Amino acid sequence: MRWIDWFTRWPVLRQLRAGDLDGLGATAATGRSEQLHARTRDADTVKRSVCPYCAVGCGQLVYTREGRITDIEGDPESPISRGRLCPKGAATFQYVTGSQREKHVLYRRPGGTEWEQIPLEQAMEKVAQRVKKTRDETWEDTDINGHVVRRTLGIAHLGGATLDNEENYLIKKLFTALGIVQVENQARI
Predict the structure, then answer these.
(1) Of the ranges 19-33, 106-120, 137-151, 173-187, which one carries the lowest mean pLDDT score?
(2) Where does the record place the 4Fe-4S Mo/W bis-MGD-type domain (predicted)?
(3) What residues does 142 pair with on adjacent strands?
(4) Confidence of residue 6 (pLDDT cuts 50, 70, 90)
(5) Full DSSP string of 4-63
(6) What domain count does the chain have?
(7) Pairwise CA distance, residues 106 & 124, whole Å
(8) Which helix (H) or strand (E) holds 120?
(9) What is the mean pLDDT of the chain?
(10) I need a surface site. Which of 41, 139, 163, 172 has the fewest CB within 10 A?
(11) Are strands 45-50 and 59-65 parallel, antiparallel or unpaired?
(12) Has residue 103 been placed in a domain?
């Protein structure tokens, strides 16, 4: 390419010739930029959701095409966030579609140095067995003064801010039924 050809295609020169000093008009466009469009344009469904990152509950719009998420944006109709998302909420799309997201249960055997994939059912069974074993081993019918307590201090729970009121209610019911008294949520800390 000759030097003069490159110079005449230079965007600043196009802007000056067209009087587009801010570079916001057609002079800023390229062949590639003219073919770009929002990922939301090709969506076949849009569902309302709530951001999973904290207890604020910002509204999100989840755009899908053929059952796959194509974009996640703030919901302008949300009375809480009015279409705005913090950096964590704005990154939800990458969180749910990112190639580095772990999609399998990983388990490292006691004393092991490597992680191995195990089925979800096996992991859930391991958790249930360990909860029962710990509860049985640390169960107290009475405290040191003889007061009836029916509890275990061997298990505690610290919930995350992504849990909603209904989930926290169910967790509290489950743990109370198990005799777990150390139940807290990080939103209070």
Answers:
(1) 19-33
(2) 44-100
(3) 148
(4) low
(5) HHHHHH-HHHHHHHHT-TTS-SGGG--HHHHH---GGGG-SEEEEEE-SSSSS--EEEEE
(6) 3
(7) 12
(8) helix 120-138
(9) 87
(10) 41
(11) antiparallel
(12) no
